[in-house]
Design goal:
The protein is mainly alpha-helical. The chain contains three helices and two strands. Helix 1 (2-49) crosses helix 2 and helix 1 runs antiparallel to helix 3. The longest helix has 72 residues, at 76-147.
């Protein structure tokens, strides 16, 4: 029972820590996505504005999109951001699994504590009831013995 009480008391802090970690990971992911979006936009602008002999090199959207993807695949900064984002998202997923497991365990431990308390209360109520029944029967025995004069020797000044 001490282990359950310890786990219940430590769980809120552990949950808060994991949630805080996930919040930081979300912030980092957002920052990386903004960085990637900036790289994508600047690459797209460079491709869209690229000219040769006064004519656009990539005259239609499909050609521009293909060239943007090719350049992004070759961009070290963009690829490092992609890898970092994948790492952060994987860590976030692991944290969410740990968080859910911790929340589930907390619920189980609370249930065990409630069950333990209910069992103790039921035992105490049963014992109390048995004690009351014993007192009731003792009272009946005493009343019966009081009704039979030869079993209850009385002294002159005894009130019973």
């Amino acid at each position: 029972m001490d282990n359950i009480l310890k786990a219940i008391s430590e769980a809120p802090e552990a949950i808060a820590n994991l949630e805080s970690d996930n919040l930081e990971i979300k912030r980092q992911c957002s920052k990386l996505k903004e960085q990637m979006d900036g790289i994508r936009k600047s690459t797209w602008a460079a491709v869209a504005n690229e000219k040769e002999d006064g004519k656009k090199v990539y005259p239609n959207a499909e050609m521009r999109d293909i060239e943007v993807e090719r350049r992004l695949a070759e961009s070290n900064d963009y690829q490092e951001a992609v890898i970092s984002l994948e790492v952060f998202e994987a860590q976030k997923a692991r944290n969410e699994i740990k968080l859910q497991q911790l929340i589930n365990q907390f619920s189980v431990d609370r249930y065990k504590l409630r069950l333990y308390t209910a069992e103790k209360t039921e035992r105490a109520a049963t014992t109390f009831n048995e004690g009351l029944n014993t007192l009731y029967h003792l009272g009946k025995i005493i009343t019966t013995f009081k009704a039979i004069p030869e079993f209850m020797p009385r002294e002159e000044n005894c009130p019973y």
